Amino acid sequence: MKFSYSKENLKPRAARLQRFLEILPGAWSWASLLGLIFLSIVFPFIAAILIVAFYLSWIMRVLYSTIFLVLSYLHMDMENKTDWKQRIEGIDHLDHYLRKVSTRKFGRHWRKWLSHQIHLHQLNELLDSQNMPPRSKDIYHVVLFPVIKEGRDILEPAIEAISRQNFPLKQMLVVFALEERASADVQEAVRDLEKKYKDNFLDCLVVAHPAVVPGEARVKGANVTCAARQAAAFFQSRQIPFENVIVSCFDADTVVSPHYFACLTYHFMVCPNRLRASFQPIPVYHNNIWNVPGFARVVETGSSFYQLIESTNPEKLVTFSSHSMSFKALVDVDYWPVDMISDDSAIFWKAYIHYDGQYFVVPMYVTLSMDVASADNWWETVKSVYKQKQRWAWGVENFPIVMRAFLKAKKIPLYDRLRLGFKLFEGHLSWATSGFILSIIGWMPIVFARREFSASVVYYNVPEIAHTIFTLSFLAIVVTIILSLSLLPKTKIRYRWLIKIGHAFEWLMVPVILVLFSALPALHAQTKLMLGRYLEFWVTDKHRK
């Protein structure tokens, strides 16, 4: 389907629809919050019933999420020692390899057995599809690193991690997408890294993105699009088909494990419809996790857990942060939007609409590590984390564009349009309201209860229901704490076990964090969109000690 994935240069009727849909999420969120406050003061009985219903639905969602968080974590842990390189070499000789692995025994090693069963199922699906992948020696990777103010202390660990891959480095192209307006120090650092690592890979390029380009905003999508076009010319000049290339768009601080690209290559090869798929790893924020305030650790760990939960439902999974996709698909959809902040999720929706719904995300149970947003002091870190969450919440800008596309996309089944449209809308509504209802508004009917309400059964039951719900929530938090401690990277600091105990107690800040670093920035973003005060791109501060 031909559709311009942009809010710019619309015809009058489309512009009016776009503006209405921009207003809708913020208006609905404010109406929900103010409506509950009004009912709590004037009609506390009705408000209490609605809030109890919300509590019940919320605790069901928490329990559901906790179960799938544990399952997803176990899956990730299960694949931790998988030899991905051996697997991709096996796919090169699929018939022989399939006969070999079909007879493999594992005894009591249930994790290896389960991983093997998943692997065997994927191989059989690939064989049945008759859509064989290129041989592993013919698959290339292009890795894009957008750079504007990241110094060598941030960039070099990312490049060094790629140079340690157990995948042939001569099949990898590294591209620094350098903003022309970057400082002289940053530009010098990038040029030095290009010279140092150029011979390690197929090539290492620096692509300078002009400071002013007509039709573009100052966003990351414009920068990486410029770099990806240069990468396309590079592969064309060497007659390497785009169908054999996987593109990974990483934040400048992204550090991958040594088996990351072998794992990515495996998922690309084993996926029958690989040219219409994105590949989403699990982001963790471990690069500087020991050097940031406790609230920042909890916020970013929560983000990782959210991605773990989302990975269990690929039908609803949307690309987030650092991700990969077929280069052929990227070229087909004309690269990332050049006028949107939320490029990581926008590229999924752009491809989904372009391919009439025949596009999906493949979850990869492998992590990549990035920086926790930080600054020079505690208060600046608070502001930095808040701005980052507001920028993430600005993903709501996709809603009006996706809805306009869905109204025209007759080839996408109506059920899918309704399902995904509702998930997109409800997700942003819940993001902006749940924290306020749970931490503040939920208690207002009790505070403002009149005498006739205070004598009712509901009045006495609301605290009991709330107590039961929060007890169950506490159990979910205990599970979350255990998983968060198991994910923490190893360190040589003294008294590590005492510090881990401190990390566990940091999760007691969750009620405050839900409001200040989740609901508030989301509501702020929706309000700005509702008022037509569009957010400007802000680069997260990254500091290393």
Quick synopsis:
This protein has 545 residues and is of the alpha/beta class.
Structural class: alpha/beta
Instruction: Give the strand order, joined by hyphens, for the main sheet.
Output: 3-2-1-4-7-6-8-5
Give the tally of β-strands: 8
Count of individual helical segments: 20
Q: Give the terminus-to-terminus CA distance.
A: 49 Å
Question: Any chance you could write out the topology, listing elements then pairs?
Answer:
Blueprint (H helix, E strand, L loop, with lengths): L11 H31 L1 H35 L5 H8 L2 H9 L7 H20 L10 E8 L4 H12 L8 E8 L4 H14 L5 E7 L10 H18 L7 E5 L5 E2 L3 H11 L6 E8 L9 H17 L12 E4 H6 L10 H12 L5 E10 L8 H16 L4 H11 L5 H26 L4 H4 L3 H4 L2 H31 L8 H11 L3 H21 L15
Parallel strand pairs: 1-2, 1-4, 2-3, 6-8
Antiparallel strand pairs: 4-7, 5-8, 6-7
Helix pairs in contact: 1-2, 1-14, 1-15, 1-20, 2-10, 2-18, 3-9, 4-5, 6-7, 12-14, 13-20, 14-15, 15-20
How would you portray this structure in words?
This protein has helices spanning 12-42, 44-78, 84-91, 94-102, 110-129, 152-163, 184-197, 220-237, 260-270, 294-310, 327-332, 343-354, 378-393, 398-408, 414-439, 444-447, 451-454, 457-487, 496-506, 510-530, and strands spanning 140-147, 172-179, 203-209, 245-249, 255-256, 277-284, 323-326, 360-369. It is α/β, with parallel strands linked by helices and 545 residues long. The longest helix is centred in the first third of the chain and has 35 residues, at 44-78.
Annotation keywords:
8 strands; alpha/beta; 20 helices; 545 residues; 58% helix
